[in-house]
Design brief:
It is a single chain. By secondary structure, the chain is mainly alpha-helical. The chain contains eight helices and three strands; from the N terminus they run αααβααββααα. The protein has a three-stranded antiparallel beta sheet. Strand 2 and strand 3 form a beta hairpin. Helix 3 crosses helix 5 and helix 3 packs across helix 6. The two termini are about 35 Å apart. The relative contact order is 0.09. The mean pLDDT is about 90.
């Protein structure tokens, strides 16, 4: 086993997940940019807007876990490409809902097919039941880390040091 393999094998789960995401994104991002005209993070935001018409800025931040400035930059890029548009809330001008237009819908459809093909390659090493188990496990962990109980337990670690 190579030194890199050993270090990753014994690394903390969060580190391995971060490395996995980084490697997979770096491998496929150029393909998204060439074929679709956006990077993977832009596609993820476009997907949220397409699948949740009227979604608001704060909801995108909450779902993605991305910081305010990055979400703002991604939305600005998608608006500059004229794939999405915003509709101000009539009761509160500081709030707005996001929507895709025809071009945004077309780009979403193309990117979704590309994303599904790339994910199939990523998961090719797992059989279908392992893929299902991985998806269920990751979903369970994600739901857990978003709870107040999880955050409280992590906070207790800080107090004990």
């Amino acid at each position: 086993m190579a030194a890199q393999d050993i270090s990753q094998h014994h690394a903390a789960l969060t580190h391995r997940l971060e490395v996995l995401a980084h490697e997979a994104i770096n491998a496929t991002d150029p393909l998204f940019q060439h074929r679709i005209g956006c990077d993977i993070r832009e596609y993820r935001v476009l997907k949220m807007v397409q699948e949740n018409p009227g979604i608001e800025f704060n909801e995108i931040m909450r779902i993605t876990g991305l910081d305010r400035s990055l979400v703002s930059r991604l939305l600005r890029s998608l608006m500059d490409k004229e794939w999405i548009y915003r509709v101000n809330n009539p009761k509160d001008a500081r709030r707005f809902g996001l929507h895709t237009n025809a071009l945004g819908h077309q780009k979403y459809t193309e990117a979704k097919a590309l994303s599904e093909a790339a994910e199939a390659i990523l998961l090719k090493t797992l059989n279908p039941s392992e893929q299902d188990e991985l998806n269920q496990t990751l979903g369970k962990i994600l739901s857990w880390v978003r709870t107040d109980e999880y955050r409280a337990l992590v906070g207790e670690l800080e107090k004990s040091s």
